[in-house]
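Q: Fold this one first, please.
A: Sequence and structure below.
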Amino acid sequence: MNQPTSGTRDGFQLTRDYFTVLPGSSALDHKSKRAIAICHLFLNRKMAVADIVWLLDEENGTVVRALLEQGVIQEPGRSKCATCCISQWCAGAPSTSSWVHLPVVPAVALYG
């Protein structure tokens, strides 16, 4: 179910309520698998960003950027609060411009 949702978690607006891990994702490169793991843990297992950071031994910014780039959370608005929040999470995180953007596949397409 990759349906839009209006929920929030850890101060971020969610764009969907479930992340579908596609068959064959185990053949992807390390960075892509890491992005899948982050999205799966955040949406499907309902883990907080801080818990994912601890579990995967990642930086806050790396986890938040993966969620942003995979379209799991919405880009924060231009309000001062949202800008401060995203700056706090992403400060000093390595660039993820080389990450693969995974397609969003509705559950209906997978299960008929």
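Q: Good. Now the second chain.
A: Here it is, same layout.
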Amino acid sequence: MDDDKNRNESMTESTTETEVATSTPKAGKSSSGKKNTEGPNWFVRTYRTYKAEYKKIVWPTRATMIKHTITVIAVSLLFGAYIALTDGILNTLFSQFVRLIG
């Protein structure tokens, strides 16, 4: 790993001023520094970028999706039961309090 770092440093130091001055601007930018969004080349580059990123997605297996779906449904039902129970208890307590006062 140190060899790679030393090699990169030596490559950076060996770049001369003429190489820097004659380097071409990166694709997608004009010489003024603004993005070049005109023309079909921009669309093709963007499409290829999206396609490359899409290929990197690791899709879950069917078994994993089923397990996660069941977990979400179970947690939702438990949370709903908790809310219903809490609502019932608070409703009863409030009714008793109103009856006691009034």
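Q: Anything worth noting on the second one?
A: Helices lie at 2-13, 17-22, 40-55, 62-101.
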